[in-house]
Amino acid sequence: MKLPTRRWLLVALTFVEVLLATGIMFGWSALSLAMRRDGVYAHLCADDRNQPCKEQLLRYSLIYTVGAFAVPLSGAVVWGPMLDAYGAKVTRVLSLVTFSAACLLFAFSSRTFDAYLPAVGLISCGGMGFFFSHFVLALHFRNDHYGLVHAIINCAFDGSTVTFTVLEQLHRTLNTSIRNLFVGMACIAALFLLLSTELVWNGHLDAPKEEDNAVRDEEEDGGGGGDGGDDSPSKDERPSVGLYGPLLECSSLTIQQQFVSAPFVACAAWALFTIFRTMFVLGSITEQMTANGGGRSAEDAETLVRLFNFLILVSVALTPAFGRFVDRYSLPAGFIVVNTLGIFCYASLLAKHTSVLCIGFLAFGCFRAWNYGLLTTYVQGIFGGENFGRVYGIGIGVFAIQKSGAAPFLILAALSKLIAMFFKRRNRRRAAQVEMQEKETTAEDDDDDKKAKEEETTTKKVKQRRGKA
After folding, report:
1. Could you give phi then psi for residue 148, rounded to 5 degrees?
2. What is the mean predicted confidence (pLDDT) over 105-125?
């Protein structure tokens, strides 16, 4: 079978774009190491030599929580409806503009211009929209390599943790400033914006017509028509009964009917439990490596975090094979494999031995990447491309806000702690002022007593002189 060159070149371009400019916030554990070295928020510590302190780590946790929360929220509120209403082109352009501006905002943030929090939120927001804009390409593979293309897009999204890992390495080895690194990220987004033309994409940013898929399938099968005596249904007839059979065909339903359908409820329930666990591990891996396995030193935990960031990227090389597995053996088999991986990897994180942890890190990388690939394949394959943005963004995204499940509560908790810290510091300043005033009052009283004694002494001397006279 001869594969069209342009389609696969666009898949390769999609992989690079998604890898560099979508879910990069998932690599926060690596970037936070660079920020600690630069002393970002070190002024919150009572002793600059005792880093990282509790207040500094709390601020980092708040930034990550906002970034993680912005991913599903922006997909549900902004990009999902925009993708369905205006298409992939508009979504792509606006999301890249947002991402580039956010990188510049992060680059020029400082102690005096503290914009790290909104910058991270906008980076996640822009990255999610850019991620959404690529799924239209999978529709051009609907009848042949559908699961594979979804797997490639999602493994690039999950592999985007490597972006911050590379930035951290550049910061550590070449002493490149965080400002220069994020200016470079903004330039990369601007380059992708320049590539958003028909000259590059040649109609692949629009959903294909069914007849286009049928013609392509005939060409790839050697131009076979009805002369071969094959009684099996042709590939262009598959969409009429649904990509995964008539029982799961929901593309002809209205968006309201899709939201109450059994396939949607099942997918939402799956997302409710699996994505939360994914985000929990990504956001707490440093704390888990410190506390689990009988406890570890900060240096040992940091070494394991670096190993974690590296090994979860190995799943990128394994994910396309999983996509072909889904194409060949169906979605249910894929869900069974992913669920098995999920159970194993979360148990292995409690282990003490590094070898077991390494296997667990690799299993987690596969679990995360393969799970997202299954979800998008399921949603677009069953509910269709016209409503994909809203079903995945609003539907699955609302449940996946649990991916920061506790994100609203974590944000409130973090803010409450910051407020408590503010009042605590204010009370300390007031106590210091009161103590200073008391010292000043005591000093004044001492001065008054001293003056009174001096006056008394002077009076006695005058009386003595008068008595002698």
Report:
1. -65, -45
2. 93
Residue with tokens 């069953």: 382
Token pair recorded at residue 443: 């000093």
In a domain, 435, yes or no: no
Residue 224 lies in a domain: no
The count of structural domains within the chain is: 1
Position 67, amino acid: G
Mean pLDDT of the chain: 80
Residue 24 main-chain phi, psi, to 5 deg: -65, -20
Q: What angle do CA 342, 347, 349 make, to 5 degrees?
A: 100
Query: CATH number for the domain including 78?
Result: 1.20.1250.20
pLDDT of residue 54: 81
Query: Using CA atoms, how far apart are residues 272 and 165, in angstroms rounded to an integer?
Result: 28
What are the Cα distances from residue 144, in Å, to 133, 215, 306, 389? 21, 13, 38, 22
Question: Given this model, what pLDDT does residue 131 score?
Answer: 95
Range of the domain at 334: 5-208+253-405
Could you give the count of Cα atoms lying within 13 Å of 192 in the half-sphere of its Cβ?
A: 33
Report how far residue 129's alpha carbon sits from residue 95's, in angstroms, rounded to the nearest whole number: 5
Q: Which two tokens stand for residue 401?
A: 């806000």
Cβ–Cβ < 8 Å for 285, 346: no
- Tell me which residue of 374, 407, 456 sits closest to 150, measured CA to CA: 374
Give the best-scoring range by mean pLDDT among 128-132, 231-235, 289-293.
128-132
Helices (H) and strands (E) in the chain, counts: 20, 0
Say if CB 23 and CB 158 are below 8 A apart: yes
Identify the residue whose tokens are 């902004």.
Answer: 78
What average pLDDT score do residues 66-79 get? 88
* Token pair recorded at residue 179: 């400002």
